Task: inverse folding
């Protein structure tokens, strides 16, 4: 009887030991999953509210956005330069002022691209005027000033003023009309509706400029000049050229106007 009792006790102790071993094995198997769960970095997950806040702080505009502050700056800046040049500044003063401005803008834009750590402060002021790609490279301001400067240096005063008004009025108006009406785009991203707005506004600003600057010009010649120049410049504006149109428009429209004035024997000052 004593031996049987001892055997029974031994079997019970062995069973308890085996149960404990099984419990430990289960615990060991469960531990890696806990570790894996702890390894998931919670800090990397950016809350939605913070993402939305970042988007609000640095808006990323594209060509398909109206971006009214940019269009308004384009319009007012170009018109101001054209009016000042026509009424207050002579050729030499206009060249010196715009040349100095172009140098300042070049240095500033180059410094901005080389020191991106200061972009956050800059974007607080200039954010509404910039497109998404311009946060990482030079903005369109420099080509805008350079195109106007080249037009003033190269062309007679009346032609230069008309070409600046084409850049200041027709270009942003065409963009606004094209975006609003959502017409079909060509390879250059230009819509028919936008081009029609460009054509009409180009005709009007050229007509008014030459009407004031050359009052002796007959209506027939004036109408023909404005019609031909508007058609040619609008056709050029629709071409898929990868050079900034802020630079090309005043240069090309000046070439067309100057050539047509020579063909139609229109006196220029």
Result:
């Amino acid at each position: 009887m004593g031996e049987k009792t001892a055997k029974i006790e031994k079997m019970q102790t062995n069973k308890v030991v085996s149960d404990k071993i099984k419990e430990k094995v289960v615990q060991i198997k469960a531990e890696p999953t806990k570790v894996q769960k702890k390894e998931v970095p919670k800090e990397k997950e950016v809350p939605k509210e913070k993402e939305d806040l970042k988007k609000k702080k640095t808006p990323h505009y594209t060509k398909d956005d109206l971006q009214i502050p940019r269009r308004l700056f384009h319009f007012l800046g170009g018109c101001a330069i054209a009016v000042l040049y026509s009424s207050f500044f002579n050729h030499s003063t206009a060249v010196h002022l715009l040349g100095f401005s172009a140098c300042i803008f070049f240095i500033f834009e180059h410094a901005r691209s080389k020191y991106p750590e200061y972009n956050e402060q800059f974007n607080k002021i200039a954010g509404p005027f910039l497109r998404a790609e311009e946060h990482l490279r030079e903005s369109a301001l420099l080509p805008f000033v350079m195109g106007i400067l080249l037009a003033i240096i190269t062309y007679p005063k009346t032609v230069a003023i008309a070409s600046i008004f084409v850049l200041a009025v027709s270009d942003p108006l065409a963009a606004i009309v094209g975006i609003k009406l959502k017409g079909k785009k060509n390879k250059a991203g230009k819509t028919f509706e936008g081009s029609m707005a460009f054509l009409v506004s180009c005709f009007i600003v050229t007509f008014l400029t030459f009407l004031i600057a050359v009052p002796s010009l007959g209506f027939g010649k004036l109408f023909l000049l404005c019609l031909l120049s508007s058609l040619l410049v609008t056709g050029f504006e629709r071409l898929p050229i990868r050079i900034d149109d802020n630079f090309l428009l005043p240069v090309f429209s000046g070439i067309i106007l100057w050539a047509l004035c020579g063909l139609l024997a229109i006196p220029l000052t």
